[in-house]
User: Fold this.
Amino acid sequence: MCRWQADRVEQQASVTDSAADRFTRWCEGVVARLPWGLDRYVPATFLGFALINSFTFGVDLLLLTLLHDGFDLPVWLSITCAYIVAFGLSFLLNRTFNFHSHAPMGKQAAVYVVVVVVNYLAFILGVGSGLTALGVQYHVARLLAGGCEAVYMYCAMRWIVFRKRTPAPDLAEADTAR
Assistant:
């Protein structure tokens, strides 16, 4: 192969390589370098989830501050509005970049809404508003609630919302095997 052909093939490969593919490879590379054999226990999707949700949690806190301090909305309403925006963004980013899901979005979104409602009631309102009512500063309360929700949400996204489905066996293949 001529040199110009090799360069062209390399350029074409990099063009077809999506940002989601590069993100996943980067996460896999980082996890592969974890010390003490942790790479066997920490999936790359966990790192991807942590990065994406750290970003969307920052969006959540920024909106919470803007709505509560800037627009003087009550804490519960500020938390709710910021939460809806941040979790919508989290769904789209995790679906695309972390879990590479190609399943129908409508069904996943419906399952995600149920997961998020449970999370919202238990951790955001329950823990976040509860701690605020006990006198904990609302940013600190939100951070503590965020730790609880992170564990719950990763597990729910990995094993419920974006779970890998095994294809049903083909009936024709089953008949042939007999």
Observations:
- The chain has a mean pLDDT of 85.
- The chain has seven helices and no strands.
- Residues 59 and 135 are 24 Å apart (CA to CA).
- The first helix runs from residue 3 to 16.
